[in-house]
Amino acid sequence: MKKFVYTLALIFTLGISFNSVQAADKPAKNPTELTAEQSVQLERIKTRVEEIRDMDKSNLTKAERKALRSELKELKGQARAISGGVYLSVGAIIIIILLLILIL
What we know:
Shape: elongated
Strand content: under 5%
Distance between the termini: 18 Å
């Protein structure tokens, strides 16, 4: 059992170091790759988010705060769709690695 745990720890450690090495080799995504229309829309989203952040939310009703939260979620989704990319959390990566180990 100890051998299995040590092997699992070794695989996990090597997997993390391999991902960081791969990330270091890739050049950073250049924001100028967006089209002019996409960059304008992204700028509108940023300004709206800043407006919402700077708002005084203490005198808003519960329904208004809920509407603002849903609007922020929608804006976040639009910004991700424009900028592209897939994001995985560390927990998701660990679960995927464990599933692969169990399957193999």
